[in-house]
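hey so u asked for the seq, here:
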Amino acid sequence: MNSAKSSHQAGRLTARRVAVVTDSASAIPARMAAAVDLGIAPMEITIDGDTYVDGPSSGLESFYDDLRRAQRLPTTSAPKPQVWLETFTRASKDADSILCITLASHLSAAYDSARVAAELAGQELSGTEIRVFDSTAAAGSQALIALEAARAAYRGAALEEVESVARHVSSRVRLVAYLDTLEYIHRGGRVPRIAVWASQLLNIKPVMQFAKGKVGVIARPRSRRRAYERLLRSARSDLAGKKAHVNVMHADAAEEASALLATVGDEFDCSEMFLTQFHPFMGAHTGPGLVGIAYWAE
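ran it, structure tokens below
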């Protein structure tokens, strides 16, 4: 056995019984996923006729610049059943069972596709139990759920316990973000053109909340600075005096996101805190300029 593998396995309290996999809409950094053996099924994005499969060499590094220039709104695709099945097959080599945590089923076909793959796996991986869990979350919230479940699995927890951890975090996690414009949501058919005109005229930066499976506008501040403060106000209300898990996200707004991360680190007791680029699968529908924070408290 090579030394890297020996060191990797030494971090576990017991042999792993469960593997956790999720989809790349979670935008979990590769190093964090690797640290807990978290499998990632890639999403697909088509922009101006070119299709990209998510991954280290996806070509999506300049996505938000490309999005600004795109003539048509990009289209996005959840992992196909075959992609999920390949992910399950890899995971089954090191574990007896698999928990698959997907992007919210009402936002994507990822959940349904994973269920089809789990049925197919019943024939090809007959000795491996596979459960598909609808996170009812997205982006940073989904990442926090998957990471916590993967840690439990990495410590040697049984499938029931790992799924219970996912369910617990799913019930607590909250995502709050502000948009730079409603233009991309309008182009996706979700808001009328008049709402875009009004927000541009008044310089409104809508603050959105995604919690317990529901999405809604919670504030309409008239500058990015005020929107930024509204995010912090939500976090202070929910996290003050508690042990926090935090994922700060941005869509080509790294400076603001880094400032937010620093403030979070100064103000809260974080057992987990990290910064990610908002995944193009999600950013295609919100546009560049988004800054958000996903979190839950122990």
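Residues 1-14 have pLDDT under 50 and may be disordered. The radius of gyration is 19 Å.
lmk if thats what u needed
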